[in-house]
Amino acid sequence: MAPPQSGDGGAAAGDLLETGLLAAAAAGVSEEDAGKATSTSGRPADDERGAGATTTSSRVRRGARLAAAQVQEVFLGTRLFPLFSAVPLAVAAQHLRLGRAWVFVFSLIGMAPLAERVSFLSEHIADTAGPTAGGILNATCGNVPELIIALFALHKEKMEILKWSLLGSILSNLLLVLGSSLLCGGLANTGKERPLDRRQADVSIGLLMLGVLCHILPLLSKYTNRTGDSISSSGSVLELSRLSAIVMLTAYFGGLIFQLKTHRQIFEQEDSSESTSTSTSNDDDGSSAIGFASAVIWLIGMTVVIAVLSNYIIITIEEASESLGIPLRFISIILLPIVGNAAEHAGAIIFAFKNKIDITLGIALGSATQISLLVVPIILIVSWVNGIPMDLDLNLLETGSLVMTVFTTAFTLQDDKWHYLKGFNLTLCYIVIAVCFFTIKGPPK
């Protein structure tokens, strides 16, 4: 066999070299494509992680802005905002033992903006319940301070303070709140007063008359049962009071059925006016940051703070009365209800200025009726369950003041006319009662 020639070997070597270079180039291209594919597939994951972090941070910022807006609306949305400073001062005075009088004064001042804000938050909740039911819910939340103070007084078994504070709430709503509203509204709308709806007033006055009767009978039975046995006499008064409490609760819920179901058409005019006012207020502050859930949370928080201050008031009221030289009767019947009714007072005057007298009547009469026929019997039944003897005997002077207050209010609203003189008369009646309780220095006999 002939040996291969050198030209053929060089050609073969060149072919092999070319094949190897092509294979290497192809491998490099495949690796580069794989790298590109890997990097391309990794970019969406990085983008998703970045988008998730951005969404979380935006939610946090949005939540922080919403919380700041709610804090501003709740605390800075009232002209009573400076009085909120009394709340931490009351807590500090209690823990630093600065004196019972200081604790009482700071607690009493701090209750005013809290009561007003409770009414404000209840309006946001009541917007979902309709005008009539919402108005009842608003009145119920407005009476939260009185109810909490009464429960703490019951827990401490300070029966006289308990009865005086509830009596003062009724007197304040019927004479001071309604009277000052008619006075200011009559002066602002002289000659342009709209006729009031007597049907609503008749329903509330009738229920209040029943409440007055349930307070008169225990007082009268105490003087008629002169058997010489004080234990049997007090026992009969206690039994009569407990049965009367059941009747009062039955009457209140019967009034609710009458107002919300069977005769709702009586309150249709009030509903339309209240709906208009609610829609107007919503238009004015349409950028409200408080929704239903947040309003409930804020309401619970405000109620807890009110409970703390109410406890301070009850445990310091007697020593504060001695330190300040103010009769305990006057503080319980006059000062405490004025603070607790701050929300109703402001709202009633505002609607009277707007010549919406039916809403003013609903606020004043509705709150007084609820205290008389709901809060009072609930407190009495709670005391009954806990074995604490509590009756409806308010003593002679207090019962007489309640009777004259209800009768004076009934005569004031006996027709569909109203003017500033009627409000002036009711306000003067409240001043006379306040002076009477201020001049009585001694304890009740």
TrEMBL record:
GO BP annotations listed: intracellular calcium ion homeostasis
Compartments (UniProt record): Vacuole membrane
Alphabetically ordered keywords of this record: Antiport, Calcium, Calcium transport, Ion transport, Membrane, Transmembrane, Transmembrane helix, Transport, Vacuole
UniProt superkingdom: Eukaryota
Residue spans crossing the bilayer: 166-188, 200-220, 240-260, 289-314, 326-353, 359-382, 394-413, 419-440
Region (Disordered): 28-58
GO cellular component: plant-type vacuole membrane
Similarity section: Belongs to the Ca(2+):cation antiporter (CaCA) (TC 2.A.19) family. Cation/proton exchanger (CAX) subfamily.
Function text: Vacuolar cation/proton exchanger (CAX). Translocates Ca(2+) and other metal ions into vacuoles using the proton gradient formed by H(+)-ATPase and H(+)-pyrophosphatase.
Protein name as annotated: Vacuolar cation/proton exchanger
Protein's organism: Panicum miliaceum
